[in-house]
Design goal:
Elements lengths: L3 H20 L2 E4 L2 E4 H16 L3 H4 L1 H9 L16 H25 L2
Antiparallel strand pairs: 1-2
Length: 111
């Protein structure tokens, strides 16, 4: 008798296979293959670049100034986090959680 995992896997296999074939369909260009998803990503990037009036290019120097700390206020209140501490604390909180979930998933599937 098949387990519930195997039953669900067999039920969704045709759907997942069709979705995989659709998303990763490749267009032959000469001798190479160009995945359709790459074309959609490029089209999306170009659309939003122009729709947002080139903010990814115009704001690049501002982003570098923020990372370097040149946009920090000199009079900070006690307990305020800096430009570097905010993403640093976010990474320190999320990464262990993601690793714990991965470990749980890997150990649960190998029983």
């Amino acid at each position: 008798m098949a387990t519930i995992d195997e039953t669900i896997n067999e039920a969704f296999k045709p759907i997942a296979s069709a979705f995989n074939d659709l998303v990763f369909y490749s267009i032959p260009i000469g001798e190479a293959q160009l995945p359709l998803i790459v074309v959609w990503l490029i089209v999306g990037a170009l659309y939003f670049t122009f729709y947002l009036r080139l903010i990814n290019i115009r704001g690049f120097t501002h982003a570098i100034r923020i990372v370097l700390g040149k946009e920090d206020k000199t009079d900070t209140a006690p307990g305020e986090v800096s430009h570097f501490q905010a993403p640093d604390s976010s990474i320190h909180l999320t990464l262990p959680t993601i690793l714990r979930v991965l470990i749980l998933l890997l150990t649960a599937t190998h029983k």
